[in-house]
Specification:
The structure holds 2 protein chains of 2 kinds. Chain A is an alpha+beta fold. Chain A has 8 helices and 5 strands. Chain B has one domain. A 5-stranded mixed sheet of chain B has the order 2-1-5-3-4, with helices on one face. Chain B starts with a strand and ends with a strand. Chain B contains 1 helix and 6 strands, in the order ββαββββ. In chain B, 22% of the residues lie in helices and 42% in strands. The chains are: A alpha+beta, B alpha+beta.
Chain lengths: 226, 74
């Protein structure tokens, strides 16, 4: 099912990614299931941060001399979501390596698969932007970010191709082709690592990648409003 | 000219090329395509504008068919 405000694929039999057979026990991902998963993450964040924040505030109010303990509680309330966001942003963190001939060849093929704007963005940020039914995707070497319609939540997916010899751009091309073949299947196969506010994920991204998230968020906001 | 390529450690390798009139070239491409399927590769026809289709038989009129490895959750 497409998210509200997003174009629905034309009628016809739904394509199925062959890799979905390897995770047959997982229910097929959809806009609804991702929305539910995002809300669960929000609830979990509230559950792990609010008690610490309340404990810290109460301690300071009732026994000001216990402020070291109160500060520790408040630090916990801040750090726990940051650690989750760090793990989430890590799915698209690239490994620095020398750019050899194979990478230049792979970059050419990836450039052919992407449109002009997405090609430029990928060269600058390392992330390939792809609009889909579920939102706006940013595809990296070993994972992808999905900015949900409205741009207020980012899902982080850990997914890749199990071939260490492939150049980075070929890894992105693998994921891009799988995503284009069956978007919901792609979201089913990928491991969901985190869902949260874009600002939280953005702070943990490598600096050159941040403009890609800004653009994806803007694009997701426009489409949802349309 | 149609092309069958495989994404690999070199960036990509051209496995076969054929044209609509070149039946022998197409048959050689089909053979190469099947060999890659047997090796575990997946054939994909990129249709542009965010669309791609998995192909189990080599389409004669395709411009470009790409062989990719399966993906998995990390």
């Amino acid at each position: 099912m497409a998210a509200p405000g997003y174009p629905v694929a034309e009628e016809g039999p739904e394509p199925v990614l062959p890799e979905v057979a390897n995770v047959y026990w997982r229910p097929r991902a959809s806009a609804d299931s991702l929305h539910r998963r995002g809300r669960l993450w929000t609830a979990w964040m509230v559950a792990v941060t609010v008690p610490f924040a309340l404990a810290g505030g109460t301690l300071i109010a009732l026994a000001p001399l216990s402020f070291p303990v109160a500060i520790m509680a408040l630090v916990h309330a801040w750090v726990i979501p940051e650690l989750y966001a760090f793990r989430g942003a890590g799915v698209v963190r690239s490994k620095r390596r020398e750019e050899g001939r194979s990478e230049r060849v792979a970059q050419g093929l990836l450039g052919d698969l992407l449109g002009h704007d997405a090609r430029e963005l990928q060269r600058e940020t390392g992330l390939a932007m792809e609009r889909g039914k579920l939102g706006v995707w940013l595809v990296g070497e070993a994972g992808a970010l999905l900015v949900a319609p409205g741009g207020r939540r980012v899902h982080c997916f850990c997914v890749g191709v199990n071939d260490g010899e492939l150049p980075p751009s070929d890894k992105i091309a693998h994921l891009l082709l799988a995503l284009r073949t069956d978007e919901e299947g792609f979201a089913t196969v990928a491991n969901h690592a985190f869902a949260g506010a874009p600002w939280r994920v953005r702070r943990r991204l490598d600096r050159p990648m941040r403009p890609a998230l800004n653009l994806a968020r803007k694009s997701a906001s426009y489409t949802a409003a349309a | 000219m149609s092309r069958l390529i495989r994404m690999d450690s070199t960036g990509h390798s051209t496995l076969a090329e054929w044209s609509a009139e070149d039946q022998a070239g197409y048959e050689a491409a089909v053979e190469a395509f099947r060999r890659e399927l047997d090796e575990g590769y997946i054939g994909v026809l990129d249709e542009g504008e965010g669309r791609a289709t998995q192909v189990r038989d080599l389409p004669k009129d395709a411009d470009l068919v790409i062989m990719r490895r399966p993906i998995a959750g990390g």
